[in-house]
Amino acid sequence: MSNYTALIIDDESLARFTLKNKLEEYPQIDILGEAASVAEAVTSISQLKPDLLFLDIQLGDGTGFDLLNQVEFTGDIIFVTAFDEFAIRAFEINALDYLMKPVSDRRLKDALERLFEGESKSMVSEPVKIDYNDRLMVTLRKSINFVKMSEIVAITASREYSYIYTNTGKEYLTSYNISEWDNRLPDQHFCRIHRSTIINFEYIAKITPNITGTAEVLMQNSSKSYVISRSYFKKIKHRYKL
């Protein structure tokens, strides 16, 4: 069984102390150090080059996801968080596992057994379908927000990123690209209508076909319309019997 070097990243000193004590039962895990912030973690990861991160989501100067955007880390990640799995399941990070605070001995053991058995990124590389009742964790001006999937009206591509538009009029920039959304959204509610646009059928107000074989769709509570391309319009009409 391989040994793993690890870094504990959490802004709560008690949480770091407690987890470190629990990990003493696992000689395969060598704790190289601790970090209490994104800034500290960036430096520690660069200098120590750990195999494994025990990573809190909410840190004092940002989030664990902010950290991952600032470093090149190819090892395994175990999130240790106060956020419920229901809320973060839809996030696209290839994490080995999520441990809820306070971390139980059983859940820690399960996560480490997966690590030792090599069941890491290969297990989560397949797209996980997002349930319509799930909530998506997104950031807006450095604050964490939870968006219900049922509140999403439309999603549009922005190069390798995408914008989410909600029924409350808010918009969020996310690191999903449009193809990732297409693979993970529940088909019974969401449909791609263009190479750069996905809409929620629950919010369609009006569809106006054009003589070119395309169409325009107007969403509820919005003055903005979206173009349905010819190829997608054919699929939509066939699938949804429009």
What does this structure look like?
It is a single chain. The protein is built from eight helices and 17 strands. It has 242 residues and is an alpha/beta fold. It has two domains: 4-124, Rossmann fold (3-Layer(aba) Sandwich); 135-240, LytTr DNA-binding domain (OB fold (Dihydrolipoamide Acetyltransferase, E2P)). The strands form five sheets. The chain has a five-stranded parallel β-sheet with strand order 2-1-3-6-7, with helices on both faces. A five-stranded antiparallel β-sheet has the order 12-11-10-14-13. The longest helix has 12 residues, at 105-116. It is elongated and about 70 Å long.
List the helices and strands and how they pair.
Layout: E1 4-9, H1 13-23, E2 29-35, H2 38-48, E3 52-55, E4 58-59, E5 62-63, H3 64-70, E6 76-81, H4 85-88, E7 97-100, H5 105-116, H6 121-124, E8 135-140, E9 143-148, E10 152-158, E11 161-166, E12 171-174, H7 178-184, E13 190-194, E14 197-200, E15 204-209, E16 215-219, E17 225-228, H8 230-240
Parallel strand pairs: 1-2, 1-3, 3-6, 6-7
Antiparallel strand pairs: 4-5, 8-9, 10-11, 10-14, 11-12, 13-14, 15-16, 16-17
Helix pairs in contact: 2-3
Give the beta-strand count: 17
Radius of gyration: 21 Å
Largest sheet: 5 strands, parallel
CATH H level, superfamily name of the largest domain = Response regulator
Structural class: alpha/beta
**How many helical stretches?**
8
Amino-to-carboxy terminus distance? 58 Å
Number of domains: 2
Shape: elongated
CATH architecture of the largest domain: 3-Layer(aba) Sandwich
